[in-house]
Input
Amino acid sequence: MPDQPRPRPSPAARERRRAAALFDRLVEIMQTLRGPDGCPWDRDQTLDSLRPFVIEEAYEVVDAIAADDAAALRAEIGDLIFEGVFLAQLCDEAGRFHVADALQSIVDKLVRRHPHVFGSNATAETPEAVKGQWERIKANERAAGGERPHILAGIPKTLPALLHAHTIGGRVAAVGFDWQGAGDVIDKIAEEVAELRQADATEGRTRTEEELGDLLFTIANLARKLDIEPEAALRRANAKFAARFAALERHFETLGRSIHDASLEEMEAAWNQVKQAR
Output
């Protein structure tokens, strides 16, 4: 009986194989760069020296997403993966762990925390249910490891404050400690604005700063209730303001004037024109 032809791998399977080969090549390149005949700059790096590069690459990924630039996103994801391989190489050289151990860690975690997907009787039909299940599993893992299962444990302290507030709100919401809807958060914002106004008028800088923090925290949670990532929303607002202000400067330049010489009333009138045009 003639041999049956082997089934051809699916396009997805071929891409996984290509990814595996390229990841192996990236690890090999990193080892070469850190080797005795490698790059002096790469050999000079430490975990501490790489921290700003990791942060920078993460933000460049976010910028590419915000710009909806697929070519840039492809490149920036590659850069971010490289930073992970670089960090793992340093840890391998110090005898701590290999990059394969880091990959094993995330593979195990994803399987363990998605029991509704990977062969369990667990069910999670909505994103909210998945989030709650994830947090419960995480808490059980910490308890099994001897840690007290605090809901807010493990949130990186280096997160931008707005994103940190958003993350805190999401964690506590997963156990039901949350506003019912966005309208309730808007009411809370009005309350916080009134308290801020009172503090600014009568209670001094320390109390005013506290009330301003409460207001910002509540706004971050309004973004969560609206399913809007607050850092991205604020970045877009910053970019919009910067573009309009640049147009405001050009407006006065076309009049042969500097914006520095314009009165507030003139700038406000021109600003309204810019807003209508953009």
Observations:
- The two ends are 74 Å apart (CA to CA).
- The chain is about 70% helix and 0% strand.
- The chain has a mean pLDDT of 91.
